[in-house]
Amino acid sequence: MRFLIVFFIGALFGTGIVLSGMANPAKVLNFFDLAGSFDPSLAFVMAGALSIAAPGYALLFRSRQKPLFDATFRLPKANDIDAKLIGGSAVFGIGWGIAGFCPGASIPALGLGHASAAIFVAALLIGILIARRLAKADFFADLSRSG
Question: Where are the transmembrane segments (predicted)?
């Protein structure tokens, strides 16, 4: 049952990404082109998502002590702004700006047959593997201490 719910939620997310046009890297890149062919639709998609998600999370946390399929909610405990957060955000933004994909939109774009999505997902997976290796080597802790 859990698999079916996760599958349904993923399919719903992917459908929303495709219908909103966010699986099209040109549409996303036009959002960043303030001096040229600016397209504000990404901001409207984000605002729409936040207008549903924020009250939904508030209602969820008020009404439930735990999720349906786990013993506890798994929320981030850290809330400091450090070099690791800033660096990760910068890499995320640069990758999004170069490719026109964020990780969430790249998966539905794969299903649409975008070759650029396959390249992006491959680079994303390589980046995840590199970050995990650096984390195991305590690289990020050393970076935080030096900043």
Answer: 41-60, 81-101, 107-131
Considering the entire predicted model, what is its pTM? 0.71
Mean pLDDT for each 10-residue chunk of the chain (147 residues)? 88 91 88 89 90 93 87 86 86 86 88 88 91 81 57
> Can you give the three-state secondary structure of 52-116, one letter per residue?
HHHHHHHHHHHHCCCCCCCCCCCCCCCCCCCHHHHHHHHHHHHHHHHHCCCHHHHHHHHHCCCHH
- CA dist., res. 25 & res. 46, Å (int): 16
- Indicate the domain borders of the chain: 2-146
d(CA 135, CA 138): 5
Q: How far is it between the farthest Cα atoms of the chain?
A: 50
pLDDT at 47: 94
Q: Are 34 and 125 in contact (CB under 8 A)?
A: no
